[in-house]
């Protein structure tokens, strides 16, 4: 089962159901990522004309940017069924063999976090992607034999937050790869406008723009903040949101004026104050904020780098001048460093 959570966040079934309901079902409804959309449209059109399953697709990028949604759109637009799985659920080659051998012709298989699959399964997937065939090992030791098994042709859509961790032989077997970028505020406004209609929330343009500005370039966060604003309106017996209502709701959830959350700020704070702006290694930084290095690298860091608050150097992570300004710290020299403690 695909895990739609942000890192460290508790699962809420109702929230997941709402998230599902807000997903666009066609490329035309999918906001932004114009280049990727154009390329995927071509891929799907060609497959439809030739009446074959579309090429395998690899989508990379931070969580919440639309990878799962695009996989669902691929299935929907090509009129094929969709099977959902994830790397951590495939811990043995046998798990993958069972999954692949049960696919129906043309089915779209979505594997989230494809970089976290077991190595033995990964090797089985190479052959499956290329020849729609797998070899099943029967027996052990000297008496072991492999039995070839033909598969129904399928389209694999792999998603990863860490494309660098994907072995080249696997990456090379995807006919189309795309990296999803953070969204511009105007694009997020369009996501929010659409979701607000679906949730029955009335939002003037200024309130919409404020939510977009605080959504960390991420549609999932935009939708989630919109739901918190809706909760605020419900509790206060109001039907429409103004900018004060948006501010009041989002302040309650620790989202700051530019959309950074508690973990973003903890990382910046550690970088600037404890490590005097760096450079500091990822592992050390992760320990300092009590979080997994993988979460820092795939969730926190991409956005802080994108907005110019953090830099990556061969010697480690560094804080950029904008980070000092945001934290209200005047300069590097004014900070008591880790070594001084
Ligand atoms: P990922 O798989 O990359 O973590 P998802 O596809 O689950 O992200 O997207 C999270 C939520 O954001 C979905 O509920 C979807 O409604 C919304 N969303 C993502 N991308 C877009 C988009 N381009 N246009 C509209 N909504 C989007």
Keywords:
341 residues, two-stranded antiparallel ribbon, binds adenosine-5'-diphosphate, disordered N terminus, five-stranded parallel sheet, alpha/beta
Structural class: alpha/beta
* Unreliable stretches covering 5 or more consecutive residues: 1-9
Bound molecules: adenosine-5'-diphosphate
Basic shape = globular
As laid out across the biggest beta sheet, the strand order is 2-3-6-1-7
**What is the string of SSEs from the N terminus onward?**
HHEHEHEHEEEHEHHHHHHHEEH
Q: What does the average pLDDT come to?
A: 91
Distance between the termini: 46 Å
In helices, the fraction of residues equals 40-55%
Rg (CA only): 23 Å
Task: Tally the beta strands.
Answer: 9
Q: How would you describe the overall organization of this protein?
A:
Helix 7 crosses helix 9 (219-235). The strands form three sheets. The chain has a five-stranded parallel β-sheet with strand order 2-3-6-1-7, covered by helices on one side. Strands 4-5 form a two-stranded antiparallel ribbon. It has a two-stranded antiparallel ribbon with strand order 8-9. 45% of the residues lie in helices and 13% in strands. It starts with 12 loop residues before the first helix and ends in a 14-residue tail after the last helix. The chain has helices at 13-21, 34-49, 67-77, 93-101, 119-131, 168-171, 185-199, 205-213, 219-235, 243-252, 262-274, 282-289, 293-306, 321-327; strands at residues 57-60, 82-86, 108-112, 133-138, 145-150, 155-160, 176-179, 310-313, 316-319. It is of the alpha/beta class and 341 residues long. It is globular and about 70 Å long. A hairpin with a 2-residue loop joins strand 8 (310-313) and strand 9 (316-319). It contains 14 helices and nine strands. The structure holds adenosine-5'-diphosphate. The site of adenosine-5'-diphosphate has 21 residues, from helix 3 and helix 9.
